[in-house]
Design a protein that fits this description.
With 263 residues, the chain is an alpha/beta fold. It is built from ten helices and seven strands. It has helices at 17-28, 40-54, 68-81, 105-133, 154-174, 193-197, 202-206, 214-224, 236-247, 249-257; strands at residues 8-12, 32-37, 58-62, 87-90, 136-141, 179-186, 231-234. Strands 3-2-1-4-5-6-7 form a seven-stranded parallel β-sheet, sandwiched between helices. Strand 1 (8-12), helix 1 (17-28) and strand 2 (32-37) form a beta-alpha-beta unit. Helix 3 packs parallel to helix 4 (105-133). The longest helix is centred in the middle third of the chain and has 29 residues, at 105-133. Belongs to the short-chain dehydrogenases/reductases (SDR) family.
């Protein structure tokens, strides 16, 4: 089991869903956790649980990852309290499923600011600190949608595809400095994500047979820390479909628009 005792771990999007479970899993591994999300009350509750699990400090810092000032405040607080940062796990993000010709500009801009630009800025600041320290790990939660887009996910998939490309370059830039970049590309997860993405609930019902358990997924991700993994692509059936997509794009288009199109 991964031992994070004495390490400082920042988790964004930590007030609910996969982010919450990642914070709890890191605390279970002994980490001192710093939690960032927009909802202070829920974040404080998660921090309280983390302290019980880790017997170590846990700090809840309310802030929107799309705000440069909020992210700067989090990093300044980490410097003030601990003077180190060993792991960053960016789980902040949201989706809104709609046809590309119908989604409004405000929704597009917000998804890009949160899912891509915000994560990039956190990663940049973390990388600077880790380069000084000579070690560290950055984990960014992208999506299988960024590898194999389906109808009604054009904008969401684009934000995640951009993040995957960013990670691929960042990984190469930081490799020689003993800093690993792990990109996690999950399929659908049984969280509140779909309350925003698809209020009807039809999509999550349709993909329940392959939807991931957030507790088990968080444990799996934390278990990969320190092992210099490049990517984690799950579930296997979607990863296999993505690999087939690269080999046979026309067939992939058909699968993405039919077999894997549950929206």
């Amino acid at each position: 089991m991964t031992d994070l005792t004495g390490q400082v771990v920042l988790v964004t999007g930590a007030s609910s869903g996969l982010g919450e479970q990642l914070a709890l899993a890191a605390a279970t591994a002994g980490a001192t956790v710093v939690l960032m999300a927009r909802r202070q009350a829920r974040l404080t509750r998660v921090a309280d649980q983390c302290r019980i699990l880790s017997a170590a400090p846990a700090v809840a810092l309310a802030g929107d990852i799309s705000s440069v000032a909020a992210v700067d405040h989090v990093f300044a607080t980490i410097d003030e309290l601990y003077g180190r940062l060993d792991v960053v796990i960016n789980a902040a993000g949201f989706g809104y499923l709609a046809p590309a010709v119908e989604i409004d500009q405000a929704a597009m801009a917000k998804m890009l600011r949160v899912n891509t630009l915000g994560v990039m800025y956190v990663s940049q600041l973390a990388a600077k600190k880790m380069l000084t320290a000579g070690h560290g790990e950055i984990v960014n939660i992208a999506s299988m949608a960024g590898k194999m887009a389906t109808p009604k996910s054009a904008v969401y998939a684009a934000t995640k595809a951009a993040l995957i490309a960013y990670d691929n370059a960042l990984r190469l830039e930081l490799r020689a400095a003993n800093i690993n970049v792990l990109t996690v590309n999950p399929g659908p997860i049984t969280t509140d994500f779909f309350k925003t993405a698809d209020p009807t609930g039809h999509y999550l019902d349709a993909v329940s047979w392959l939807a991931l358990n957030p507790v088990k997924l968080a444990e799996q991700i934390v278990g990969k820390l320190g092992h210099h993994r490049r990517e984690l692509n799950i579930p296997w059936v979607m990863n296999a479909a993505n690999l087939g997509y690269q080999l046979a794009p026309k067939l992939g288009d058909w699968l993405a628009g039919s077999v894997f199109n549950f929206k």
